[in-house]
Specification:
Largest sheet: none
CATH architecture: Orthogonal Bundle
Shape: globular
Strand content: under 5%
Distance between the termini: 41 Å
Structural class: mainly alpha
Helix content: over 70%
Number of strands: 0
CATH class: Mainly Alpha
Radius of gyration: 14 Å
Length: 101
């Protein structure tokens, strides 16, 4: 992908709700440059990529990604969606703990 296209897409991702400079840099390190890529993979898969690069990736990051896909601030996600994301997050923590034993 050319530098000019990536640069334009970088700005696109920065315009999404919940995606500031720090999250945009993390997404870039995870090879996510556009809303299209984020939506295609989904919040959970993108979160796993972030987690592979940054062990500190947290539930708020996962919710922020989902909110960006839905076009809303993560605080506005439905209670059901937040619970679904929390279950996924907890499963990831649990699977990592099992692997380290």
């Amino acid at each position: 992908m050319s530098h000019a296209i990536r640069n334009r897409q970088k700005h696109e991702i920065n315009r999404l709700p919940n995606i500031g400079k720090v999250m945009a840099k993390k997404l870039k390190r995870a090879d996510i440059y556009s809303f299209h890529e984020l939506k295609k993979l989904g919040a959970e898969k993108v979160f796993l990529r972030l987690k592979a690069e940054d062990e500190g990736a947290c539930l708020s990051s996962l919710c922020a990604l989902e909110g960006a896909i839905e076009g809303i601030r993560w605080h506005e996600l439905s209670k059901e969606k937040k619970e679904e994301l929390k279950r996924f997050f907890e499963q990831q923590k649990g699977s990592k703990q099992k692997k380290s034993k």
